[in-house]
Amino acid sequence: MLSYQHAYHAGNAADLHKHALLAWMLDYLTVKPKPLSYLETHAGRALYDLAGPEALRTGEAEAGITRALARGWLAVDHPLARAIAATRAQHGATAYPGSPMIAAHLLRRTDPIHLAELHPAEAEALNRTMGRRAHVHLEDGFAMANRLAPPEPRRGLLLIDPSWEVKADYARMPAFVDRIARKWNVGVIALWYPLLAEARHAEMLDSLAAAHPDALRHELAFPPAREGHGMIGSGMFVVNPPYGLAEEAARLTACIA
């Protein structure tokens, strides 16, 4: 997992899916004045340059956030569009926020942010970017979530977003989600997963759906980023989904279709 660096994939179609739903949920949760906590298991560096050599090497953002903004899939007042605008006002016209920075822009200063990142260089960059706005934990993200749940304040959201380079993650995820859901029964638990041609996620999703029948499962199919690329879509499984999330997910499907 330490080989994975998201700079090559920032802003791609999967990011568009994941970040649009994440931003919508965070924005919805802040409607109430009660404080909330945000936890993330695999944070990355939080800030990316879509004109940087890594992003240009793959060109994946062209089919994701670049296309979405050009075609008006995100209204100017959509929470993700607001987070992107705020990021670019600070860091330039080609900057793109990772999920930690999206959370930082949409949450209130009194809402604590806990981010785990095990890759040393990514963690160092994450610390520089987030500064005092977040608690950065240089540790395994699953361990951090298990240690902190339930957080204080108890309202909040956990984003589980591993690289999925370790195939064992698919087998361990149902038990991990179950454990966190039992400990933190009021928390929104959002799991992102890739749709691959070999359907590695199928058995995992069957187990998750059986244990959490009221969860939201939303999958978005799209063409491979390039010839031979294995990812053909993006999925989100959300335990305790906020009211209205299904409608936002359906809107994204209609846009990309």
Tell me about this structure.
It holds the Pfam family RsmJ. It catalyses: adenosine(2030) in 23S rRNA + S-adenosyl-L-methionine = N(6)-methyladenosine(2030) in 23S rRNA + S-adenosyl-L-homocysteine + H(+). With about 260 residues, the protein is of the alpha/beta class. The chain has one domain: Vaccinia Virus protein VP39 (Rossmann fold). It is about 40% helix and about 20% strand. The chain contains ten helices and nine strands. It has a seven-stranded mixed β-sheet with strand order 5-4-1-6-7-9-8, sandwiched between helices. A two-stranded antiparallel ribbon has the order 2-3. Helix 8 links the parallel strand 6 and strand 7. Helix 1 packs parallel to helix 5, helix 1 packs antiparallel against helix 10 and helix 4 crosses helix 5. The longest helix has 17 residues. The two termini are about 30 Å apart. The model has no long low-confidence stretch (mean pLDDT about 95).
